[in-house]
Amino acid sequence: IKVSDIATHHIKFILKGIAGSRTKSYTYTVLNIVFQEAIFENLITINPMSFVRKPQHKSEHAEVITPEVFRTIIKEVKGTQWEYIFSFAIATGCRRGEICALRWSDLDFDNKCVRITTALKKTKKKGSFEGSPKSPYSVRTLPLGEDVMQSLLRWKRMLRTALIERCLPFNESDFVFRNQSFDKPIPLGSVTAKMYELRKKLGLPDNIRMHSYRRTMATNLAVEDINPKKIQHTLGHASAAFSLDVYVKNSPEMIKGVAEAEGKHKKQSGGAGQFGVVNIRFEPNAADGEFEFVD
After folding, report:
1. Who contacts 227 (Cβ-Cβ below 8 Å, separation ≥6)?
2. To the nearest whole number, what is the mean pLDDT of the chain?
């Protein structure tokens, strides 16, 4: 079929036959570019895509991992490298690429912190490579609790033993988590594949994935009433609002306390000025009670 013969109903038929919403949206975008180019080359005069609504794709957020689910996962991977990867992930909220690129020299056991300065990435052109984190805000130093510190030290001893058995040297500048041969960083795909394997084996929901550890960490901080700016810093985001809106899952624990805020308004115009102060206080009502406003 010629480009000039393609009509709107052809496009709708093609899109209707595509199951995934993301793939359908991508297909629409590619076809639209093709027909725009065809107009530029004087092959057609009207873009048939102009009469087709772009399919919407709603990405499903990764689900928060409950303590029960986390214990189930750890029990399944106990004694393997995955136990330490998942424990570090839920304790720090680091991205998958940041965990894969982690080196022993990034860990400060004396001051109990970790420096996030690089991330493992993969593209079709370059393959797998170590580069800068997602954004300048992603370069950060995170505190480490005693539990995760001891966990990392246990993994360090296990790693040394595994390297000796394979006649490989240990160096503080080497990667913390390794591939199956223990000579390179653990691949990004291996982490994703392991979570898929665990989901199927343990019967976990499809939206439990590696990113769930990051969202779980953010939600736990919010439940503990940690300052939003600290949550933003921990996740390496540019905006605290984005951290709270996208990564924090609302829970009943978040609305059990009392919240207060103050707003001020100042405006000078000619000889007159305006000034106002608003103080507002929120506190939970009875479980079956209605909203109550008190002046």
Report:
1. none
2. 89
Asked if residue 148 lies in contact with residue 87, where contact means CB atoms within 8 angstroms, the answer is: yes
Residues 6+ apart with CB under 8 A from 164: none
The residues with which 266 forms a beta bridge, in sequence order, are 275
Q: What angle do CA 90, 215, 225 make, to 5 degrees?
A: 90
What is residue 161's three-state secondary structure? helix
Please report, as a single letter, which amino acid is at residue 124. Answer: K
On the CB side of 225, how many CA atoms lie within 13 Å of its CA? 8
Q: Is 25 helix (H, G, I), strand (E, B) or coil?
A: helix
Q: How far, in Å, CA of 30 to CA of 22, rounded?
A: 12
DSSP 56: P
CB 103 within 8 A of CB 174: yes
| 244 vs 149, residue with greater confidence | 149
Amino acid at 129: F
Q: 102 and 130 in contact (C-beta within 8 Å)?
A: no
Contact predicate 52/11, CB 8 Å: yes
With cut-offs at 50, 70 and 90, classify the pLDDT of residue 96. very high
Tens-digit pLDDT profile for residues 209-232: 999 999 999 998 988 888 889 999
CA contacts within 13 A on the Cβ side of 171: 8
Chain centroid to Cα 120, Å, comes to 15
